[in-house]
Write a structure and sequence with these properties.
The structure is a homodimer. By secondary structure, chain A is mainly alpha-helical. Chain A has a single domain, classed as Arc Repressor Mutant, subunit A (Orthogonal Bundle), CATH 1.10.10.10. In chain A, strands 1-2 form a two-stranded antiparallel sheet. In chain A, a hairpin with a 3-residue loop joins strand 1 and strand 2. The model of chain A has no long low-confidence stretch (mean pLDDT 91). Chains A and B meet through helix 4 and helix 5 of A and helix 1, helix 4 and helix 5 of B. The first copy, chain A, binds a DNA duplex through helix 3. Chains A, B: Keywords: DNA-binding, Transcription, Transcription regulation. Chains A, B: One of its GO terms (molecular function) is DNA binding. Chains A, B: It holds the Pfam family GntR.
Chain lengths: 135, 135
DNA sequence: ACTACCGTACTAGTGCGATAGTACACATTT
DNA sequence: AAATGTGTACTATCGCACTAGTACGGTAGT
């Protein structure tokens, strides 16, 4: 699967899994009715403990994004895609707000912030040129 | 002092202290030669353990931003202000880059990102209207 | 000298994320 | 019926950030 975790960045691994599964749902990489990779399979793939994956899946289930197909696995629920897209958009907006607020606190004014954003934007445009992203 | 910590956001408290002391130095709130608040005083103020503050101060000392005035306290070193300003600028630029990259990955194009940034920017401008910040 | 304050060092205990191993109920496949 | 694979539950253990309390050497004020 498309999931990658980094155990050294402070963010709990199970949260990283939850986040990336949500992104996969939002992107349509897994559609409604599709099964998530099994707990043991994903654990083997990521070289982590099955309990950690199970913890992430439990969270996804309690958020009603995914439902138990008993004996089969966990399947993506109907409204999950739109919900994940909404959550992703809200998360992004919040992070943009945080960073801009930090920029203000650093003494930059709106014009300086705009310059900084534009500089990073053109840098990233070169990097992402001509591909439909979704690593 | 001007420091505020949040023990429930995952970031170690001592790192929050290091970060905010650096910001205070960058902003000139504490100038070269000034003493930092004592370990015990800051610990009492933040309602945390003195060891946690001591840990933060040890980091600042090993980064040569602050030096031991034996028996007196820790004083801000000469080049610290410029160094902290540089670090803060680099940190900010990196965070802007991260967020914009995440925006690209969410499927937004450069124009959409610019719209999102502008929206947050005008929202924050209202909030910060007519004050020299530094909460 | 005495007291008070400074940073530092040390040990012990707590909370939480993660690991490790086992057991269980369920469904599919053979 | 048996084997395999699914998610789940449970206990034990480990590491790390943090708390808690104490002790020590250095400096200033009296």
């Amino acid at each position: 699967m498309f999931i990658r975790v980094d155990s050294s960045n402070g963010v709990p691994v199970y949260e990283q899994i939850v986040r990336q599964v949500k992104f996969a749902i939002a992107d349509g990489v897994v559609a409604a009715g599709d099964l998530l990779p099994s707990v043991r399979e994903l654990a083997r793939e990521l070289a982590i403990n099955p309990n950690t994956v199970a913890r992430a899946y439990r969270d996804l289930q309690s958020q009603e994004l995914v439902e138990l197909a008993s004996g089969i696995g966990l399947s993506v629920r109907g409204g999950a895609k739109r919900e994940c897209q909404t959550q992703r958009r809200q998360l992004l907006q919040a992070r943009v707000g945080q960073v801009l607020e930090e920029a203000f606190r650093s003494g930059l004014d709106a014009a300086a912030v705009r310059r900084l954003v534009d500089a990073e934007l053109t840098r990233l445009e070169k990097q992402f040129m001509g591909n439909g992203n979704h690593e």
